Amino acid sequence: MRLLHPPPYPNEKDYTRTTRLESVVLGFYEDMHHLRLFKKMLLRSNTRGVYKSDRDDEWVADFAEIQDIAEAIEARRIELGKTSGFEKLYPRVTKLYFGGMARHFSDLSKVLKPGAKLAYVVGDQASYLQVMIRTGKILTEIAERLGYKVERIDLFRTRFATATQCELREEVVVLTWPGKSKL
Question: pLDDT tens digit string along 96-154?
């Protein structure tokens, strides 16, 4: 079982890269090899951390909204003529992110006490070729499928995305684990 601190949204930010110095100083990694092994265990949120062996997308294979978003990203990529390897991975990393979150919720359900409360700060995302991803909404639907009770979604703040020229929501998703898994 891998319990982890999930990234707030699928995007191109490599969180292990931005926290590399702190992680080394705090002794989380012995060397680069150790860091690479650790990265393979993390939830996917960017194309630089996708591996052929990743299977978290299987957790959401029947989740229509996520599949629709992935298809919209791919259609937009083709429309714009984007051909880089990273851009080709946008649909997959989106499915891996939400599948990883489903796995995360499932793993947590095995160790949480009934009535446990969880709070996640998450944000909308549109950095994958300007296709809107309502992260909080989708995560609550995944959590509900796995037996969690959604207490509320609170607006934390809005941020203006220059790439899309729209306001994106950052929210606090509050969940309760009732103690019974739907798996």
Answer: 999 999 999 999 999 999 999 999 999 898 888 889 999 999 999 999 999 999 999 99
Strands 149-161 and 116-123: unpaired
Between 40 and 121, the higher pLDDT residue: 121
Neighbour-count burial of 90, counting CB atoms closer than 10 A to its CB (0-12 exposed, 13-18 middle, 19+ buried): buried
Helix axes 64-80, 90-109, angle to 10 degrees: 160
Comparing C-alpha atoms, which of 55, 92, 47 is closest to residue 70? 92
pTM summary value: 0.84
Contact in structure between 131 and 72 (CB atoms under 8 Å) = yes
* Spatial distance between the Cα atoms of 74 and 36, rounded to a whole number of angstroms: 28
